[in-house]
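Data availability (excerpt). The following record was deposited with the supplementary files.
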Amino acid sequence: MENQNSKVLNISLWVAQVLLSAMFLMAGVMKSTQPIEQLATSLPWVTQVPTGLVRFIGISELLGAIGLILPSILRIKPKLTVYAAIGIFTIMLFALIFHSSKGEFSVIGMNIILGLIAIFIAWGRSKKVPIQPKN
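Predicted structure:
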């Protein structure tokens, strides 16, 4: 039964990793490449902060997305997946604080959901079903 639970958890973690990575890959590409005026149509807050910060967030999201998948798939330093998940959680925590301070409570739910998924990945890959590095 324990082996079956580990298998289900491992599959659940992979699904979470792929979905979270896809979301942050899309968000990161948008924030790091689109002109601010175009980005502002879907993310009005980008006009309220320096452009450099928007680009930094986008690059951080891109790196987090890559870190959620690549180290685990290649089994090269798979612990980096845990660190990427913690980084994504940190981004979501800062986003929650920022949006709360602006009174943008409608977006906070998504910050919480994505942050919880990131914590699930960090917990699962560090404690329950870690991926072993190649020998």
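Summary of structural features: The chain has a mean pLDDT of 96.
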